[in-house]
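>> received
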Amino acid sequence: MATFVSRHGPDGQVVGSFQLSGSDLQSLMNEGVQRMDQMFAGAFNAGQLQRDSTLNQPPPPPPPPAPEQSPLSQAAVVLNVQVVSPNALTYNYALAHLRTIPGVDNVQQVNIAIGDVSNFLVTYHGTPASLRSILIARGWAAEVAGNSVRMFVRPAKPAAVQQPGPTPTNTVQPAPAAAPQVPKKGPPQ
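>> returned
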């Protein structure tokens, strides 16, 4: 024999109860679930079940404002990007930067000219001017000419030349050596 008690709410208010008996546990549980379902449906239809308002979820936050125009919303264009690459390190940095720019779908290496100008074909969702702006923000110098962007290492700023100032003098003067104090001896007694 099994006793089924249906409860509701955080205080466990009793909606109803019943007893079932049988030797097969699976059929006993199946019948218990059906009768509990009927009991809760009847109580709900009769208006006996009230939702606890403390269980309500807070309203969702407002959606973020939509960006004016993301790079991917523009049609993809193929740009010729020239990289002044005096060494392999500059070439590799340029290639890595181009591949990680938002809106770049593909970077195709056209020629590798270490010590000269290397060329890439870049499939980009944006304008050459916007690509130039991103490159400048990442520390490169860049120029736009039509559908081409030329990027190169920004020249180092000359170090500020320091004017020689007055030579510091030793302001701590050594203390003059004092003559040792010899106790005065009086006449022999």
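>> The first helix runs from residue 25 to 45.
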